[in-house]
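Figure-free illustration: sequence to structure, shown twice.
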Amino acid sequence: MGFKVSFIGAGSIGFTRTLLRDLMTVPEFREGVDVSFTDLSERNLDMVRQLCQRDLDHNGIKVAIQATTDRRAALKGAKYVFCVARIGGLEAFQSDIDVPLGYGVDQCVGDTLCAGGVMYGQRGIAAILDFCKDIREVGAPGAMLFNYSNPMAMLTWAANKYGGVKTIGLCHGVEGGHNQIADCTMYWARRQGLIGAEETVTAEAIDIVAAGINHQTWYVKAQWRGIDLIPKMLELFEGHPNYPTTEKVRIDMLRRFGYYSTESNGHLSEYVPWYRKRTDQIKDWIDLGCWINGETGGYLRVCTEGRQWFETEFPEWLKQPPNDIKPEHRSHERGSWILEALETGRTFRGHFNVPNNGAIANLPADAIVEVPGYVDRNGINIPIVGELSLGCAAVCSVSISVQRLAVEAAVHGNDQLLRQAMMMDPLVGAVCTPPEIWQMVDEMLVAQAQWLPQYGKAVAEAKARLAGGKKIATRQTQGAARLHTKTLEEQRADKDEATKNASNADKAKERPAAAAAK
């Protein structure tokens, strides 16, 4: 079984090493599959290649990784391409968080919607269209792109509409909430006497359907032993020992909209206008036991700590035993399961980000939706979900309008559309006036100019305005709930935790138990 898989942004240690390990758990893929890595950073690329090649050699897998900064060389002949790139790296990410803070826009993540997500999309879309051009020109005929990069919906939208490459967006958000529902069901079932005090409920025991848009997807079906859990969902979550503390935003949305959201408390809080618009009330809705529960700039902090740990401690990583590649170590990241189904015919069911085309009847046809799908040798097949509830559809529709404006802005280098996307964003609009939004966009364009080739004229005009006119005063603030970024010495106090943070693709999969006590 011969085909080639390429990774763009392969210097991302968490995703690249995890996805490659997952692929190599498929028996048919252990020989005859070509693997290539490409990244802008030769140093990061070489470090990840060394670790991944050690893993392959240790497990007797006869695959030699081709690693090159020449993207077209890496993509030549590729049938499947994984995009795990962060365009602009941590430097651009810092401005995604810090510039909006000066205008009162307090983000936890800033990579999907809100001011940071919109700007991240401008950088990412410019890059992913270049990736698509290379895939069309040098990839295998009919090559597919699997996008793991955020903003998921915007990048997947641009690649499908303008890139000319079939692109599927993949995210582990549905899985995280699925596990929470199982945990809540376990506590509820024990109280009801339906299971014993020591029995557990696994996610595999609960059949779910989730539908919406990435990071605003709703569990519209959840059944356990024939019991419909949807009408009981608020009772389940309010009865959990931890979640009423760590998931306040999600539970409040569940209370008011009737369905539980796939996305974390911190993510969800910045996609809607209600929970982060007043600095003095943000802490009422978040929890600082884990960054993903709402910490200001929390994802930037853990990514910064993880990157500096990996780059500094890399010689120590090489002294650790290689990873065992066994089926029981395979992650739930969807990529390997899809490729296995496409190549072997073994059916896989998951949730994917795809053009809507009627799957969700009351969302726009051109939007990227997150819905169930089935994969086999015939391809990726998306069933009709039907309509979302009016309230859930309304929440998604607002965000889709922002995404559409942002995509068109990025593709055409139209800063007027970019500013309109910012105005329409729920949290930015709740916090900022139109003149503040215009100036904030100017600052972000100038700060990120090196990653925005389509905005040359707009950047020059923004620089002139910032240098010339009377500026609106901004705030000197670290935000409502920002925590200290650990130094290397501080991380060395718990090396295992630092290594786990740097290694994980999902940097909030294991949340500390202390989160419940905060």
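We now fold a second protein in the same way, so the two outputs can be compared directly.
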Amino acid sequence: MNQSLQNKEQLAGHLLVECLVEQGVEHVFGVPGESFLAVLDGFHAYKDKIDFVICRQEGGAAFMAEAVGKLSQRPGICMVTRGPGATNASIGVHAAFQDSTPMILFVGDVGSDFRNREAFQELDYSSFFGPSTGGMAKRVERIDDPERIPEYVARAFATAMNGRPGPVVLVLPEDMLTKPVKAKPLARVEAVQAWSDPGALRTLREMLLASKKPFVIAGGGGWTPQAAQALERFSENWRLPVGNAFRFQDTFDNHHPNYAGDVGIGLNPKLAQRIKESDLIIAIGPRLGEMTTQGYTLIKAPVADQKLVHFHASPEELNRVYRADLAILASMNAAARSLEVLTAPVSVAWEDWTLSANADFLANQVAPAPSETALIDMPSIVECVNRHLPKDAVLTNGAGNFASWVHRYHKHHGLSKGYKTQLAPTVGSMGYGVPAGIAASITTGRVTFTIAGDGDFLMNGQELATACQYGAKTIIVLLNNGMYGTIRMHQEREYPRHQSGSNLTNPDFVALAKAYGYEGVRITRTEEFESALKGAIASHKGTLIEIMLDPEIITTRATLSQIRDAAIKSKNLK
């Protein structure tokens, strides 16, 4: 705290910044607004301890904050102005909610004397964001008394981290922020650990001993390196196969001999069959949502064909969709640490089951031979990425079929090695990868690799200006196929021969990247990629590598023509 402010009043806006500093916040992402000028002045007062990262659009800022929440397991902070600023930022709040990521959105609001008159850009934030209306935040509160700012900020941090992690929205009336206050920040808030019930653990042990084909699915929010290490020891002690839930592929080390693959979009058919054949599913952390369960078919809702043990940090999530045979309330750190000391027998009946699960995963990593006519072979591209990126590199992506290449062929070393390496939206938000990568670069300094589609990139490509302003260096591989590929895939399946609303006319991405201050490279052949990637890693600037991709190359498993032909045959169309 500034010496001049220690023994006298300060503006409430300055106190808010001081509270963030006390919570260990070093970066706040946002777009400035006249509704919180006093807070912006507070960032100037504490500029040696905290940075306000000026973004170009509130959606990008919110994604950056969400990414920091994933990386640190403490709330990422976003600050925006009222009305349009808040609604733009809502996409990141929604992502944080569905991804179980701790995050706090601060919204500058109209003054208290103008409230409830539909003043300029006024909005009812409790109705828009609030959980009581089926919204997207765990808690929405407005701070009317500036002396209570420390209380509200501390509660927001506790709410965002405890139980199922998620976003909190704090609304800041403009006139409140300019009032003088004497209050001081509260001490740093830490997440509370909910420990597994010992009786439930004994029951789980009995269920394991009676099982012949158990399977573990790990994922969700709240995982730390220590929890991931404990999960590995549990898997090793009991020789259990482990799959990672959708877009939580770094929860369990993909190089581990007990790893069975990711349970998400583009699921290995052999893994899908294995989960269906399992007689005991142990879900540690994931909600078991639509993507992880393949539309609630791998594990049928509300009552699974398999015995189901579900660990989750939120009592509201347990037995909400699935009636578990055993529901255990525990945070991930506590759950994994209690499981690692669960006494295992000398031998188990499913050792071959675990070995074959890993063999199926490794076989699925072997790409088909490249077509002699294809100019770009994406498995070879990803293999090159695997060889050259450091083990602690952060990989980010938004939503689109383009992500399936890294999801299938990249192997994460996992949180157990001490660092999170995947930032990907389980909510399926387009435009996430670019700002998430920039936030990772700013806050960790690690090599950051983003894969994007042409449509996906244009959602938040303007944040390259933010990257250059703050010295962020990211490597962006942009797959340009001139269309919204995922939508075209579904279109070809449901309405074969009809193309509508999915074609794109794109800018010159290389020129656009250079205009922002990035390096820009375009490649048209696989053999050109390695030198471009090595140059990007060596460069002191961020680099965009545009890959001109044949529109027919749509997923890791099928081309557009194959999807169309299968749809025509199934629908008996001529």
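Summary for the second example: The first helix runs from residue 12 to 22.
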